[in-house]
């Protein structure tokens, strides 16, 4: 089977449009339509519902989509490995990093890596850990930092560090007079939170379910400086990684009672070929981790 129709099929499935798929692929739309029609003829199945206003996959198309993603990724991995054996390494790393770590943990690591490997191009994508994990599984990223609650199926991980989530308040907030904060007391306050899809928010949502409390979220933003500013001015309380607040003398942080610790790991697809550039980045980042933290 020619691999190109599968690539065309994937582009249509993701964009829900023959026109947009052709634009992304930089191919004439009739060529895309003919390739999909031939693919359907070869398989003896209808893969796509066609209408003037909406494109959607049939049940058979949805099943093929699962295989097409794996097949095209395997082909891409094989081609990359063959190019590197011929000395044609492109030297690019596509890595996903959550915003808190991107702002406070990774900048010196990324700069040090670039200093050691100046010819390798770093493409850093910021997002929520669950979005980044999905992008990694779909082959849109080579590596990604995730919060490893459980080992995701299909991914390999290496733990980078263990970090505490701390309740963060203004200096004059009553919490500043306490040694630790219970989840119940935390959820009695108006909260300043990241949006859904970020590990910061997921931790709080899971804690609320365990506690049986409904979070009172007054502000939602993924901008860390804004979260800190709102909290500092007393318009709510938040929870941030200790690395974010440890050197901020305008805010007070206290541990939860009991404490909340997160295992932050770097992940890659299980069994996937890592290019020389990606392996170099993975090894470098793992060297910077904190493997001796107590579990």
TrEMBL record:
Annotated InterPro entries: HTH-type_LysR_regulators, LysR_HTH_N, LysR_subst-bd, WH-like_DNA-bd_sf, WH_DNA-bd_sf
Keyword Transcription: yes
Spans through the membrane: none
Pfam families: HTH_1, LysR_substrate
SUPFAM superfamilies hit by this protein: Periplasmic binding protein-like II (SSF53850), Winged helix' DNA-binding domain (SSF46785)
Domain HTH lysR-type: 1-58
Gene Ontology molecular function terms on file: DNA binding; DNA-binding transcription factor activity
Keywords of this entry: DNA-binding, Transcription, Transcription regulation
Any one Gene Ontology cellular component term annotated for this protein: cytosol
Family, as annotated: Belongs to the LysR transcriptional regulatory family.
Protein name: Transcriptional regulator
Organism: Marinomonas pollencensis
């Amino acid at each position: 089977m020619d691999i190109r129709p599968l690539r065309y099929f994937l582009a249509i499935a993701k964009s829900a449009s023959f026109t947009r798929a052709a634009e992304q692929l930089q191919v004439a739309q009739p060529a895309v339509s003919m390739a999909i029609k031939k693919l359907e003829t070869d398989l003896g199945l209808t893969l796509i519902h066609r209408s003037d206003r909406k494109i959607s996959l049939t049940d058979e198309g949805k099943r093929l989509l699962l295989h097409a993603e794996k097949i095209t990724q395997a082909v891409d991995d094989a081609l990359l490995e063959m190019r590197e054996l011929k000395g044609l390494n492109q030297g690019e790393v596509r890595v996903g990093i959550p915003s808190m770590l991107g702002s406070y943990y990774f900048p010196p690591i990324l700069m040090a890596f670039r200093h050691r490997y100046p010819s390798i191009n770093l493409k850093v994508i910021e997002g929520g850990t669950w979005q980044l994990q999905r992008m990694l599984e779909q082959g849109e990223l080579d590596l990604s930092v995730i919060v490893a609650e459980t080992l995701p199926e299909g991914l390999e991980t290496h733990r980078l560090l263990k970090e505490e989530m701390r309740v963060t308040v203004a200096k004059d907030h009553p919490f500043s007079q306490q040694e630790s904060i219970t989840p119940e007391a935390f959820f009695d306050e108006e909260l300043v939170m990241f949006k859904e899809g970020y590990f910061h928010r997921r931790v709080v949502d899971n804690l609320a379910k365990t506690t049986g409390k409904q979070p009172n979220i007054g502000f939602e933003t993924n901008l860390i400086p804004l979260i800190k500013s709102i909290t500092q001015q007393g318009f709510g309380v938040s929870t941030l990684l200790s690395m974010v607040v440890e050197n901020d003398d305008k805010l007070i942080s206290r541990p939860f009672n009991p404490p909340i610790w997160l295992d932050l790991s770097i992940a890659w697809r299980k069994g996937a070929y890592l290019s020389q550039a990606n392996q170099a980045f993975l090894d470098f980042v793992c060297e910077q981790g904190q493997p001796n933290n107590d579990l």
